[in-house]
Amino acid sequence: MLKDLKALGKESLIYGLSTVGARLLNFLLMPFYTHYLLPAEYGVVATVFSYIAFLNIIYQYGMDQAYMRHYDQKQKAFSTAYSCVLVTSVAFSGVLALFPGFWAGLGGIGAERGNLVLYAAAILFLDSINVLPFADLRMSHRPFYFAGVRIASITLNVILNIYFLTRLGMGIEGVFLANLISSLFSVAAIPRRFTFTFDRELFRKLVDYSLPLLPAGLGAMAVQVIDRPILLRLAGESAVGIYQANYRLGIFMVLMVSMFDQAWRPFFLERADKPEGPAVFARVLTYFTLVLVWVAMALSFFIPDLVHLQVAGRALIHQNYWSGLPIIPVVLLAYLVNGVYVNLLAPIIISKKTRVIMLATLAGAFVSVAANFALIPHFGIFGPPWAAFAAYCVMVGIVYSYGRKYFPIPYELKRLGKIGFAGLAVCLPAFAGWVGTGWQWTAYRFIALCAYPVLLLALGFFLPEEKDKACIMVGRNKVCLYKDK
C-alpha cells in the first residue's frame, strides 16, 4: 500500500507543478487586475471566462476521458477521438464567430462587446484540440513534458497580460489576447501522433462512454461558474468583480484538489483490479481529508493578512475589493467538499456507471442555480459560496450512495468523523466571536493550527502503524514505537 501511495504522491507533485502554474496565473494576475481594472471591468472578464469554462465541456464532450478509458487501443482511439473533436470544434466556433454581437448581448455583457466573443471562440477551439494530447501525456506517464508545456504557456500568458495592460493600455481586450496567444503556443508545443483515421466500432464505444459525461461535465461546471452570470444579472458587473477577486483567494485549496485529481484518475484505474485497491482508496480519502481540513483552517486564518500585505507601497489587493473578504472561509469549505467528491468518483468510474456522475452533477447544478437565485437578492456576493457548498454536499451524497453498490470501498467513516469534529472544535472560538483582536487573534490562530493534530491524537485517530511510521520519520524509532501492539 505504501508503495502505491508514494507513486500517487510523486505524480501528484509533478502534475501539480503545471496545475499550480495554471491556478497561480489567476492568483498572480488577480491582484494585478484589481489595480488596473475597475470592479465592473473585472466582472466582465470573470463572466466571459465563466462562459468559456462552461462551453469547454461542450467542445470536448468527455472525449479525453473516453480516450483514457480505452487507452489499450491508444493509436486508433486517439485518431478517432481527435478527428471528432477537431470537426465539432470548427463547427462550434464558427457559430459563435458568425453572430458575436448576438451572443454578447445574450450573455449579458452587451452587444458592443462582440469582439470578446470572437476571442472566446478562438480560445475554445485551441483548448479543445489540445485536450487529447494532454490526456495522452498523462496516460503515457510523461508528467515532466506535461508540466513543462503548461508552465511555459502560463508564463507567456502572465508576461503578455502585464505588457498589454501596462504598456499598451489595452484593458479587457489585452486579457483575452494574451490568453489566445498562450493557447496557440500550447497547441504548437505538443506533438500529435494523429492521422485522419476513423474506426466506427471504436467510435461507438468512445461515444457510449463519453456522452453521459457531457451532461455530467456541464452540471459540474455549472456548480463552479454559474454563479457569475446569475450574479451579473441580479447584482451587476461590479459585484461580480468583487466576488471574483475574493473567490480567487481560495487558490491554494484549489491547487491541492487539482494537483490530486490530475494523478488520482490514472492511479485508481490502474489499481482497480488489484485486491488491495479498495483499502488503498479508502486510506487515500482519509489522508486527503486530514490535510485539507488543516489547510482550509490555515488559509481562513491568514488570507486577510495576505490581502493587506504592502508590495511596493500598494496593498496586494486593491481596497475596492476588500468588502468581499468574509466569503473566503465558505469558499474554502466548498472546495474541501469538492475534494471529497473527487475522491468518491473512483468507484463510479471503475464500474463504468458514468450516468451516476450525470445524476450527481445535474442535481448539484439544480441546487446551485436555485440557491443562487434564492440567496443573491438577500445576501449579494455572500450567497454564491453557500450555494456552491450546498451543491457539493448533494453531489457527495449521491456518488457515495451509488458507489457503495457498484464498487464497495471500506471508507474509514469513524476516522473521517474525528477529522470533522477536531476541525470544528478548534475553530469554534472564532465562529462564536470569543477571540479578541491584535495579539490575541494572532496567538489563537497559531494555537488552533497546532491543536488540530493534538486533538486528533487524543481522539485516537492515528493507527499504531501510523504512529510508528511518524516516529521513524523523525528519527525516534528506538524510543517511540507504539507500545500497545
Keywords:
78% helix; 485 residues; globular; 22 helices; two-stranded antiparallel ribbon; 2 strands; mainly alpha; 1% strand
Write the layout of secondary structure elements.
Blueprint: H1 2-36, H2 39-60, H3 63-69, H4 74-98, H5 100-106, H6 114-128, H7 131-139, H8 143-167, H9 172-189, H10 200-210, H11 213-225, H12 227-235, H13 237-247, H14 251-270, H15 277-307, E1 310-311, E2 314-315, H16 328-344, H17 346-350, H18 354-379, H19 383-406, H20 413-432, H21 439-458, H22 464-473
Antiparallel strand pairs: 1-2
Helix pairs in contact: 1-8, 1-14, 2-6, 2-11, 2-13, 3-4, 3-7, 3-10, 4-6, 4-10, 5-6, 6-9, 8-9, 11-18, 12-13, 12-18, 14-15, 14-16, 15-16, 15-20, 16-19, 18-19, 20-21
Strand order in the largest sheet: 1-2
Sheet with the most strands, sense and barrel status? 2 strands, antiparallel
What is the H-and-E element order? HHHHHHHHHHHHHHHEEHHHHHHH
Distance between the termini: 20 Å
> What amount of the residues lies in strands?
under 5%
Structural class from helices and strands? mainly alpha
Rough outline: globular
Extended strand count: 2
Radius of gyration in whole Å, from Cα? 23 Å
Mean pLDDT: 84
Helix content: over 70%
Q: Can you tell me the residue ranges where pLDDT is under 50 for at least 5 consecutive residues?
A: 481-485
What is this structure, in a nutshell?
78% of the residues lie in helices and 1% in strands.
